[in-house]
Amino acid sequence: MTIGPRLLGEFGDLPDRYRSAKARRNAAGTSPITKQSGKSRVVHARHFTNTWLLDAAIQQAGEAIRYDSHARAFYNKQRKRDVKHNAALRQLANKLIGILHGCLARHELYNPSIAWSQAQTQPAA
């Protein structure tokens, strides 16, 4: 499966199109929308987004939990919090897009020890 090229193709080839990881996550539709008023706070998934990009990001997350122990640990942590499967995949996709942005911005290859150091997750056995 060629998820990587599809994901990069959907993001486009302009190097400074996304100034931050948040902008890249918003474009992919993986970051939530939070609405807050007074004491109430509601979190929704984004619905108006590039569906091709969101699909590629979710597929990447699904494959990552199969082959990357750090991604599996992150996914398991979400599931232990009673997050449903699709929401946990979207959260993992959100994390992976942030990691992708860091790699592209710094012109570095993916290094799990650096990418997952902030997450404080232990690899799944």
Report on this model:
With 125 residues, the protein is mainly alpha-helical. The chain is 58% helix and 8% strand. It contains 6 helices and 2 strands, in the order ααββαααα. The protein has helices at residues 3-11, 21-28, 51-67, 69-80, 85-106, 112-115; strands at 33-37, 40-44. Helix 4 packs across helix 5.
The total beta strand count reads 2
Described by its quaternary structure, the protein is: single chain
Query: Structural class of the secondary structure composition?
Result: mainly alpha
What's the total helix number? 6
The rounded Rg comes to 15 Å
N-to-C span: 25 Å
| Portion in beta strands | 5-15%
Percent of residues in helical segments?
A: 55-70%
* Strand order across the largest sheet: 1-2
Give me the strand/helix succession: HHEEHHHH
**What is the arithmetic mean of pLDDT?**
84
**What's the shape?**
globular
Largest sheet: 2 strands, antiparallel
What ranges have pLDDT less than 50 throughout 5 or more consecutive residues?
120-125
Question: What is the topological layout?
Answer:
Layout: H1 3-11, H2 21-28, E1 33-37, E2 40-44, H3 51-67, H4 69-80, H5 85-106, H6 112-115
Antiparallel strand pairs: 1-2
Helix pairs in contact: 1-3, 2-5, 3-4, 3-5, 4-5
